[in-house]
Amino acid sequence: MKNILVLFVVLLAVLFQAQNLEKLSNEINEEGIALYRSEMASWYGTDVFRANYENMENVGGYFSYLDDSVPKCIFFSKDNKVIATIAFPTNYNPKDANLDLKERDFTPIEREYFAIRQNALAKIKTDTIFKSYQNTSFNIVPFIQKNVKKVYVLTGPSVNNVVVFGNDYLLTFNNKNEVKNVEKLHNSMIPTSIQDEKVGKTVSGVHSHIIEKWLTITPTDICTLMLYHNLTNWDSYTVVSKKYVSIWNSNNKLVIMKTENFKNMAENILKNKDKTESKEKTE
After folding, report:
1. Run of H or E residues at 227
2. Which of 41, 168, 219, 244 has the fewest Cβ atoms nearer than 10 Å?
3. Are 254 and 218 in contact (CB under 8 A)?
4. In terms of C-beta distances under 8 Å and separation of at least 24 residues, what long-range contacts does 190-196 make, across chains too?
5. Dihedral of CA 104/105/110/116: which sign?
6. What is the DSSP letter of 57?
7. Do residues 202 and 195 touch, judged by C-beta distance below 8 A?
8. Dist. CA 236–CA 234, nearest whole Å
9. Are 62 and 45 in contact (CB under 8 A)?
10. Calpha distance 75→200 (Å, rounded)
């Protein structure tokens, strides 16, 4: 009876752990997809805006956000007035974008996005935690969900044939839109070639995490993978750490498992493969 109870407790612990990892996977994946949708609106919104707006000296900046699931890119003037609103359909085709060049005030939610975006920009300019690298620039992505205010800062390459992971940061804010905390999501910058001189076009990739709080794949990793998928065509990508192995695939599915479980699974696959090959040789 005692052994049965012990086994039952172990099974419950395993099930609870699996449910927690599935919940964590869903949360990270959903946030990564939301960041991607915002960044796509910024990418294509900038193209649409520049093609239709002449007085560029009047521009103070821009940001994107999801308005009831509709991606919108907002450009504002140096007087902090909205001078362009570009809304996108799910295909992000610039030809299908809804462009409004009427000057107006920020809506209440836009004013919140504007405030944390500007405060993040000021922090980037003064805090030495932020590192700049040649042929890169920072992308500022304000994010508000369930009254939680964040700004993700990603590093984007200004040269071709490179996908940049890392050198990304997360700023969190209080209810007054003041910066509460700044943290690095990766320990360094990880440039990855799309086309390798020796092996040709890469088909996948992997990098490791060592920052204790960010041992799984990050929302910024997922955002980057989705942004560059049309160039890389990577079917999958793996992030490893001492505690977790995160596997993302191009169907926007994410699986996170304990590193020890992943190693055991890999060892069993190799053992079964060796047994199969040995059997085939003796037959």
Report:
1. helix 219-227
2. 244
3. no
4. 190/164, 190/165, 190/166, 191/157, 191/162, 191/163, 191/164, 191/165, 192/162, 192/163, 192/164, 192/165, 193/161, 193/162, 194/161, 194/162, 194/163, 194/228, 194/231, 194/232, 195/161
5. positive
6. G
7. yes
8. 5
9. yes
10. 40
- 30 vs 87: CA distance, rounded Å: 21
**pTM for this model (two decimals):** 0.89
Helices and strands (H, E) in the chain, number of each type: 5, 16
For 165-224, what is each residue's pLDDT tens digit?
999 999 999 999 999 999 999 999 999 999 887 778 888 899 999 999 999 999 999 999
**214 token code pair:** 């960010």
In angstroms, the Cα distances linking 231 to 8, 168, 176, 194 are 48, 21, 40, 8
Q: How far apart are CA 16 and CA 176, in angstroms?
A: 37
**Nearby residues of 235 by Cβ (< 8 Å), 6 or more positions away:** 203, 204, 249, 250
Q: Which of 163, 65, 81 is nearest to 116 (CA)?
A: 65
Here the tokens at position 196 are 């390798």
